[in-house]
Amino acid sequence: MIIMTASPHGGRRVAGGLVLAALTVAGVALLLRGGEPTPAAPQAVVQGGTVAQAGGAAGPGGTLWPQGPEPGFTVSAGRPAPAGEATPLEPVGRFRADAQGALVLDTDTLRTLEQVLAFRRDRPVAEAAREATSALPERAQAQAIELAERYGRYEQSLRQVVSPERAPQSVDEMAADLQALQAQRQQWFGEAAARQLFGADEAVTARLIQLMREDTAPAASLEERAMRAQARYSAEQAAAAPAAR
């Protein structure tokens, strides 16, 4: 499920926070439908502690994120944001490193990536990302800059196939598009890193889709079912909050 949100500079961008547009009245989300398939990100392999594209050729923009942690690269369990929690976009947050000096990957990292891309204006991604890495050790700083550049290329690849004019026609289409987006993310970032970055948002979206499936109101539009799903989801979260304390 690919969604679009307005950028602070008047444009549109593909957002990682699926739940934000999953609840909009404009068709719940803008979905990956029609057009040519997104070119799959080349698979990466670890060779002697470095990451190289399978086959030896350099991929677009340089080396690729490994399928799983690179030796010396920590995929942190981190502190995932509570499901559905919105993190303010401004000011831009900071990337974080673990005790070994490696970049932490979690939901907060994804929010920082989104912020870096949204507020970079006309600057190169690496320059904008560097400002959010100033307090990091050298290794984590390099990893964060590489990740930000990769995230920018990932967003660009989605824009090439997103059709803003086309909306989902069924809940089944929404579920299929979520699966397609999950596969894209795994190709670009590796299964482990994609799970750490996007897993919380994807879980919220999957739950909303499930709630929409359970809505059996006759003749209800997707927008109406989405609004009721959001209300049910919010009630679930409110009921779970006291138990979590």
UniProtKB/TrEMBL annotation:
GO annotations of cellular component type: plasma membrane
Location (main, coarse): membrane
Residue segments, region Disordered: 53-89
GO molecular function, one term: unfolded protein binding
Keywords for this protein: Cell inner membrane, Cell membrane, Chaperone, Lipid degradation, Lipid metabolism, Membrane, Transmembrane, Transmembrane helix
InterPro entries (UniProt xref): Lipase_chaperone
Subcellular location: Cell inner membrane
Topology of this chain in the membrane: Single-pass membrane protein
Domain of life: Bacteria
GO biological process: lipid catabolic process; protein folding
Family statement: Belongs to the lipase chaperone family.
Protein name: Lipase helper protein
Naturally occurring in which organism (per UniProt): Aquabacterium olei
